[in-house]
Amino acid sequence: MNQSLARLGGAALLAATLLAPLARAADPPPRLPPTYNPAASLAPLVDAVVPAVVSIEVEEEVQGDPDVPPWLHEFFGGGDGKPYVQQGEGSGFIISPGGLLLTNRHVVANSRKLKVDFADGSYVNAVLLGSDADLDVALLQLPQNRTWPYVQLGSSDKAKVGDWVIAVGNPLGLGHTVTAGIISGKARPSQYSGLQEFLQTDAAINPGNSGGPLFGLDGKVIGINTAVVTGANTVGFAVPIDLVKGALDDMRTKGRVARGFIGVSTDAVTLAVARDESPGVDQGAVVREVRPDTPAAAAGLQAGDIIVSVEGRAIADNHALTRTIAVHKPGDLVHLKVLRDGKPLELKATLADRDTWMGGQTAP
Fold this sequence. Notes:
This protein is an alpha+beta fold. It folds into 2 domains: 5-252, Thrombin, subunit H (Beta Barrel); 260-358, PDZ domain (Pdz3 Domain, Roll), CATH 2.30.42. It contains 9 helices and 21 strands. The strands form 4 sheets. The protein has a 6-stranded antiparallel beta barrel. Strands 2-3-4-7-6-5 form a 6-stranded antiparallel β-barrel. Strands 15, 16, 17, 18, 19 and 20 form a 6-stranded antiparallel β-sheet that branches. The longest helix is centred in the C-terminal third of the chain and has 13 residues, at 241-253. The protein is globular, with a radius of gyration of 22 Å.
């Protein structure tokens, strides 16, 4: 994507695993709309989900800039270099009756206090359980002294370009606001992380919408509203919820997301590569380097191999390989389908921990 992106400032299996420890027999079902006619009105959908969507007010401590002139201290902090408190805001949504809440990491990353406001005017404080910089997601915990209204996570993979969606959040500090549009594109690349991709939507998204949900017409969340193209009109981006699901348990229990690492440098299969190196192949990730003492080396991968699938999932290009490896955990055994000199080959690799090997870089 050659336009610059601006971050916005201030489920049956999932329910059976992540949410079960916080659920009780009397817990209510997720907030879903009744049978309704979306062509007539989206109000039944909005009425169902809004109680589980929140505004987040953030206080963070910022180091003062000694070069700020005195007459700007009120707006930008003291000129003596001492820390001062800065406020911001964003959005979020509750995903369990026990009060687990999703938002963007950039909304809450440096917070010292998190105030969560509801559409009915009530508010509570929340604590940060964990976050993930690569996906720009964070998981908060609301007080566990009550049962919370919550929404259900849907499937971004099943969503199609042209599907109707609605965004709910707190744009520009206006309070709970609803906008509607369609999915304009899928798998848009991110300039922030090789592990991240976006759903594109023309539903109006503005600063303060960060961390809010993007709903399908069934009332299930398919994305987390995250970014816009600077200077564009109704070009917004959301983190696909299927990328987020695999990070939830790690954020809740470890505070961070552990990701798999295989140890290769790759390129996409281009027309030139297909012509010169592997005629007839139009997608995949071409291995350019196998790092020594890595899972790739132990598995027998070689420079020039073309990885065409991982665990049965087709690999479109080198970016897809990075994301696919990263959704697996350290210690996972993955099956690779490879083309070597035009001939099919199957290999197995036991993944290492990405953070340990990469130190924050973004290779698979």
